[in-house]
Amino acid sequence: MESKAGTTETRSNITASDGDQVAALESLQFTDEFHRLILAPPSDNATSLTALLELPASRALELLHSPASAKLIAASASSFEALKGNFLFPSNTTLIDQAARSSVFAGGVNNTNNKSNAPETTSNNATLNLEKAVKSEPAETESCQPLVSDPAVEKRNFKRKDREKKAKGSTKKSKTAANDSSDGPEKLPYVHVRARRGEATDSHSLAERARREKINARMKLLQELVPGCNKISGTALVLDEIINHVQSLQNQVEFLSMRLAAVNPRTDFNLNSIFTTESGSLPDSNFPSMVMPLIWPEVQVNGNKQQHQQQWQFDALQQPVWGREVCNNYITPENSLLSYDSSANSVAEVELFSSNGQWTTNKQRCMQIKLKMEL
Amino acid sequence: MMNTPQQVKNPSTSLKSRFITRFLGALTKINAEDPISSPSPTRIFQRYRRIKVASNKSMAYSVRSRRIWSRAMLSRFRSRRSAFSGRRSSVKTTNCTTINVTINENKTAKGGLDMQTDELRELVPGGEAMDVCNLLDETAHYIKCLTTQVQVMRKIVDFCHLSK
Predict the structure, then answer these.
(1) Do B21 and A271 touch (CB under 8 A)?
(2) What ipTM does the predicted assembly reach?
(3) β-pair partners for A143
């Protein structure tokens, strides 16, 4: 039979220990629910309930991995034919709601409010499915409400297990349950989080998990923003990279403002001209930042102008006019700036610049220079 | 959420253009005040500081109050302006020293993400009062704005050199 095959498949997927624990859990919860079910409506379902209790595990396992809920209910309903006896069939939706409410539908949220809200919608979905099953099997017009409540409960239970066992369909099902239920006006107040296997499902860890996922999503965005971060794995290193990048950007702002201060500025900043040059020089703009720290040591150490020109001609592809003029102009303000340093405390600082091109260390030395300039 | 180009809705009102207008206005103002020709290091240093403040301020104003970091930066400017004379140099040096100190503490430890987040908090203005989630958001936007700032400033410098 289809159900039996399903159970064997599902059993192979689940380890024995987990299955036993879950089965024990399920059976415990089933007993509670069905006791309450018994108390509410005055019908003689005791025998049927205890009969049902005998197969919580297999039922749950089967229901766990069956894709379509309608098919599932049909299958479960069909398998329950064997246990028919004096089953009544659930034309009574109020009873199902009661069963829903009384069920231990944790779903990661332990509040009773949520319990009352969530199962309502799911029970609505369950009722829809069950009504389909009802129509498909008109012979069982008098089956028990536990029959229906059992698949309903089991559906909810296996939904809970889905949360525990990382079945992707479960969150979609619960979501669609919330969306499709025409009778449920209230929205589900909790966040749908995909629970992974073996992880706890209490509210704290779920909230933490949601928070962690948000943080990881943002880290991914940051990785895209910061160049060279994609290959790095591990949040600590990525954060290091990000910190370095922010520091380097702040340093660049400082250096550029220093250059702006040193450059003899033109009083008329023609916006239009800047915008036109802007469009052309966009691809070039990133290259100078790398070249710049290399230029500075070479200015003092070599005084070799040809190298600058070569470097600049690399990036001045689109605007070859820039090549030589820029070099010469770059040299003079830097020369003037650094010569003041040399007058204050001479060669030491400049040599420090020539050591490496890393921004962080340059930043320290620049700070020293600035402080000395202040004095 | 970070990918929605909220600043690039309209090219004429993009963050970049707003920043450019403001910053150029500030630059002209600074150049008008200062005698340009004096090459003394102190004057240049003063100009550098003023330009840096102007650049950060222009960027913060371009972002308005949409971001926590811009709000923090603006409030910092306003408080600095209110206690202008006595605190200017001290604020500068404290900034320098904190950055110098934190560079050396960049080592990772087990569960040492706290160290990085603390560093990030110091780098991003207004970061002390943010939780990690918002901090990462603000960092991303801050990086974006900083890159724009750097781009624009570099273009201005190149333009000045070109037209020299």
Answers:
(1) yes
(2) 0.78
(3) A88
